[in-house]
Amino acid sequence: MFSTPKDLAEKLRAVQYLVADELLLVVYLAMRLGKPLLVEGPPGSGKTELACAVAKAGNTVIERLQCYVGINEGKAIGRFDKALQRLFLEAVKGSQREDWEWIRAELHTLSFFTQGPLLRSLLYEKPCVLLVDEIDKVDQGFEALLLELFSEWQISIPKLGTIRAKSIPFVVLTSNEERRIGDPLRRRTLYIRFDHPTVQREREILGLRTNQSSAVRKQLAGLARALRGWSLEKPPSIAEILDLARAMDILGLTEIRPEHRDVLLPLIAKTESDRQRILLRDGFAALLSDSVDDGPCSATARAEEV
């Protein structure tokens, strides 16, 4: 999808996505090596958006498997459509083609199989992006389901057979680290970690995604750092800070002041505990004071092959 790391960086920037240079090289290597990319980090740090941005920048399709507790093979890979199979049996009943061997073979083809995102990702002529989102929500049994796919780029399905990839998708697995991902899956990936962006990087993102002035971007980036440093139950994501910037634009605000607390509170406090904390006497004013000082760069990112 991309000829060089520079080409990748330019096309990602064109779709308003920024990624650190050292992480960019890992993303590019994962594509060229045909390896899944395991991205771990806190919620809202841009992990899912990376997959979406790569698909958009590469002008290709994204297949998304949203993981959750109890997800099964049918949701991920697919299942035979029994109703369609019965309809087919009724249609051929009594016809000249009522040959059981032919009927059985026909019933167990892709024509009668409802495809899940894992299977669909293998059937594109042009490589797609496969996003396996929040992989830390599944158990080790489901992880094992992915090993054949990421080792051989194929899926073995009872009665249907082995489906091999027409093209190798670019795979992004995201994890919020609720559970440690097993070593067999990790060995098949390249690993990167996303943290919330530094103040400087958040200002760059705001500059790319909004029309706010430099002064507003500086205050918003500082406020994001201050909020994340408050140990809130739900620290603000990058997307929520962008929403705050858009809200300021709609309200015609060129600066956040203490008297704006109540109107902006629903944008930055997403639990009752966080809301009450910010409502404490001088709570919001203290946040604004903390946001003035950019402080040291606290977010880090590292990448390594596992």
What does it look like?
- With 306 residues, this protein is of the alpha/beta class.
- It has 2 domains: 5-77 and 116-193, P-loop containing nucleotide triphosphate hydrolases (Rossmann fold); 199-292.
- 48% of the residues lie in helices and 13% in strands.
- The chain is built from 15 helices and 10 strands.
- The strands form 3 sheets. Strands 2-5-8-1-9-10 form a 6-stranded mixed sheet. A two-stranded antiparallel sheet has the order 3-4. A two-stranded antiparallel sheet has the order 6-7.
- A hairpin with a 3-residue loop joins strand 6 and strand 7.
- Helix 1 (5-14) crosses helix 3 (47-57), helix 10 (199-209) packs across helix 11 and helix 11 packs across helix 12.
- The two termini are 24 Å apart.
Task: Provide key terms for this protein.
306 residues, alpha/beta, Rossmann fold, 2 domains, 6-stranded mixed β-sheet, two-stranded antiparallel sheet, 15 helices, 10 strands
Quick recap of the structure?
This protein has 306 residues and is an alpha/beta fold. The protein has helices spanning 5-14, 21-33, 47-57, 73-76, 82-92, 100-107, 117-122, 140-152, 183-187, 199-209, 214-228, 238-251, 261-268, 272-279, 283-292, and strands spanning 37-40, 62-66, 78-80, 113-115, 129-133, 154-157, 161-164, 170-175, 190-193, 303-305.
